[in-house]
């Protein structure tokens, strides 16, 4: 077995908790020191409101924000004028759902997958109830974790295709390119939830095809409170501002407002500039780790191999391509109890339905334990994790 790079020393949390093993990176990553240093430096030396105050510090903060926008656009392989700075993937999906320039008619259809996080289900569910629309779902093949057949689900009444690029439960990375091309030919708006994908695979291929792609900073070694939306001009130029307030207007009277005609029209109010600047720094940090993903995949493979040898454990199928995330359940110990046991022994995992209840219902699995690896995990931690699982089986099964 090849050696894994030990990056834990770059993470202050890991240095502060040397006996703990963080295995919940799909929920939120720990933050590298370089990102925290950049965040602190902004607040200590560079903080001001942006696109408003014309004093030197205000101009500097505005320049930093726009520089971060360009860096995020470069990371996604899009032009900066097509990238909007947002707060969270969940908020963007809600805003998009209610702002699309579609003349909805009762019976129109929205195509999702059965693997969606609730953030990419509940907004469409509410929209469908409001306009009497029909939600259709691409099934997940139980034996492989891949998307099932979708061709018969996409038709002339399909107005939106909104799907995740990677499952937050199984880690499966879905092959979406044929679906996205077919959606475009059908005239449907295509939206990709890339929150679980962005830290592991290049975004550019998705951004080239989909109308909108959204992802969050805190799942790729940034901090909470920042997200990016890459959106095609053919879509964003038709969208109205989805929140009103300062920073998105050119002229306001008591009866009327003239809004910006640039991507900034979706950025009303004071942005979280510090989080955006840290987001760009996280992109830089990731770009400086060329071996990270292959090493995480190696570590995941070793974990999956060890779990497969445990007869009391069933691992959810995760397809040919996957993120360094997997989920499993114990045949004799409830997932919540097992997670509590692991927590007591310093292993931080998540248990439950992971905001993806329809997926687990379709698989007839009530709850799973999820292990999601990050840059700070090591082979020794995985070996200790497996030993802890074995101990739980001996004691409780």
From TrEMBL:
InterPro entries reported in the protein's UniProt record: Aminotrans_V_dom, PyrdxlP-dep_Trfase, PyrdxlP-dep_Trfase_major, PyrdxlP-dep_Trfase_small
Domain Aminotransferase class V: 21-385
Signal peptide per UniProt: none
Keyword field: Pyridoxal phosphate
Family annotation (Gene3D superfamilies): Aspartate Aminotransferase, domain 1, Type I PLP-dependent aspartate aminotransferase-like (Major domain)
Pfam families on file: Aminotran_5
Top-level taxon of origin: Bacteria
Annotated PANTHER family: CYSTEINE DESULFURASE (PTHR43586), CYSTEINE DESULFURASE 1, CHLOROPLASTIC (PTHR43586:SF8)
Record's protein name: Cysteine desulfurase CsdA
Species the sequence originates in: Pseudidiomarina taiwanensis
Highest classification ranks of the organism: Bacteria, Pseudomonadati, Pseudomonadota, Gammaproteobacteria, Alteromonadales
